[in-house]
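Revision sheet: structure tokens.
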Amino acid sequence: MRGKILLVIFTVFTLSICAGIGSSKADGNTLKSKDGKIKAFSRDLTATAAVATQKQKNFVCGPDVTDHTYKLLGKIIDDYDDVSNWRKYTACWNLLNPNTAVSAWDMYPFSGGSIFDIHTIAPKCQVPRGKPEFEFQCERTISFEFRCIHLGRANYLFWGIAGNLCDDEYLQFFASSAYNYFAKDYPEDHPTPKAQEMFVELGAAYVDYYRAERAARAMGASPESSTNAGELIQQLEEATPAWNSARQEFKNKMYQLDREEKACRLACFLPPDKTDEVSKLFGYQWEGVTDE
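Predicted:
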């Protein structure tokens, strides 16, 4: 929006120069013409720009849930690694089976059916709200990796995690494309399918890093029981730069993507007690892993 406003201002200024109109020294800011039309138009344009800028200041994203999200992803990986091979197989098959794929999984509060109504915890976050046009703007948003994100798009982190855990090429393909069947409901070049794929890629990259970091933590807790410390350290040294690169690529792509929620400022600051309240909203289900 700021770029469009600057473009209009530049165009008006250029046309005024071509028309031989000089600048006024009376107020130092407006243009002057014999009939005063350019001066009036410039004043109106300045007022419009000021209103637009003020309006955007009132657009605030939801809270930063980066740490909460990675903690949840880590729990999914831990839970999957702890169950039997049969339950692993069942969990992965549930994601491939057309009869169970839709209902076999979910991450909260990212689920499409979830209500992440943070304004009861922090009234100045996720605003404006209350109208359909704000749903994809600030009303249903969170901050993740220093980007304002629509909740439903972040849910696709699960598919990246599951695609890596199940080590199934078809599942990985399914993760990035099958649910984009719903992309037909979006206009061409809509950001949602593209953002979903970005989250899939990030989730898949997190698995290898988390497992390496988890093993290193376990070694640090009881180094005397680690017979392969050198190997674990090497795995972490290899996984860390790859993960950092994946995170940076995600942030770069998300910044470049034309998304409605980019207008929402990262200005939702929660005190520690409120952050604890937000953490209680996080959880997941994955039939085969979470069910007994």
